[in-house]
Amino acid sequence: MSFKWPGFAILFILFQTALFPRPDMILIDKIAAVVNEEIITQSDIDKAIQFYPILRKKDVFTQDFYISVLQDLINYKVVYLEYKDEYTLREEDYNEVQTSIINKLGSYNKLMSLLRQFDMQWEDFKDFIKEKVFYQKVLKGIFQIKITIDFKEIETFYNEQYLPSQESLRLKPKTLIEMAPLIETQLRKDRTDEALAGWLKEITTSYKIENKLIEE
Fold first, then answer.
1. How confident is the model over 105-142, as pLDDT tens digits?
2. Which residues of 110-144 are buried (b: 16+ CB within 10 A; e: fewer)?
3. Strand runs labelled E in 26-158
4. At the topology level of CATH, where does 7-215 sit?
């Protein structure tokens, strides 16, 4: 997914290339972030946008959008570095990510066409998605305990959030029994997201992370 060189060496090569360009020289990819000594490049962000199902407003690419995609890549890398000695990836672990990518693009042939655009072989593709695959496997292992939601919480959400929202929209509300499964799903997702955010914040504190996009 990225390469590992001393940051000074890369910056020196970039500096030399900018001052003394030669026809036979290839400009090294722009550094987007550094996690310890592991580098995430601008092309990694571009590939993630093309490959991974990412929510955005139509085709608008704002700075905040790029920063959000980069933050995902940083999270994948931190989790990989933190747990790489505890988990081993198998071929079946790749299936879910590969399937979601193919579904996003529409077909396997379109995936292969996109790989050619990035001058990537299948092994390059697997190496690129490895950290995301690893991230999802670790999450399943750590957050495998199902979060239970008390019915009282569902009722409170129904009365304090659902009913007022329907009233403000002048819509006829559904009954508590009808809404209970949907509310429970939402509450469980919110609780999982909170736990995930806290977990990521805790493990990232021990890593030196330089986000070049934010710095710029």
1. 999 999 999 999 999 999 999 999 999 999 999 988 88
2. ebeebbeeeebeeeebbebbbbbbbbbbbeeeeee
3. 31-35, 38-41
4. Triger factor/SurA peptide-binding fold (1.10.4030)
pTM flag (> 0.85): no
Q: What is the mean pLDDT of the chain?
A: 84
Compute the distance between CA of residue 126 and CA of residue 79 in angstroms, rounded to an integer. 17
- The partner residues of 38 in beta bridges, in order of sequence, read 35
Q: Would you mind telling me the total number of residues written for the chain in this entry?
A: 216
Helix orientation angle between 176-204 and 63-83, rounded to the nearest 10 degrees = 70
Residue 180 burial (10 A CB sphere; 0-12, 13-18, 19+): middle
User: CA angle, corner 95, sides to 92 and 100, nearest 5?
Assistant: 165
Q: How far apart are CA 157 and CA 163, in angstroms?
A: 9
Spatial distance between the Cα atoms of 46 and 33, rounded to a whole number of angstroms: 14
Residue bearing tokens 């509450």: 187
**42 contact partners, CB below 8 Å, separation of at least 6:** 29, 30, 31, 32
